[in-house]
Amino acid sequence: MLVDRVYRLEDISTDMSDLSRNVGLDFERLPKHNTTADMEPPVITNADREEVAMMFRKDYEILDYAVSDMLATTK
Question: CA angle at residue 44 from 74 to 34, to 5 degrees?
């Protein structure tokens, strides 16, 4: 499969008009469906982060993500 552009999820809100224009659809914002306001985020351990980083290392490299960002701990 060939693609013209890869959109990053973290930038999708600012890229919506470009995406809309490229796919020929008229939308400016992504609708939110199935959201849960009172749901607690999952607990992700450093071991979990390391496993994910190893599993997706090649993807991070191709998409120019820093593996070290994935391994950084959160509060």
Answer: 100
Residue whose entry in the numeric block shows the structure tokens 């997706």: 56
Residue 29 within any structural domain of the chain: yes
State the total domains in the chain. Answer: 1
The residue segments making up the domain with residue 59 are: 9-71
**pTM of the entire predicted model:** 0.55
| Number of H-type helices and E-type strands within the chain | 4, 0
pLDDT per residue rounded down to tens, the chain (75 residues): 788 888 888 888 788 888 888 888 877 677 777 777 778 888 989 899 889 889 998 988 888 888 777 676 554
**Rg of the Cα atoms in the chain:** 16
55 lies in some domain: yes
d(C-alpha 41, C-alpha 24), whole Å: 35
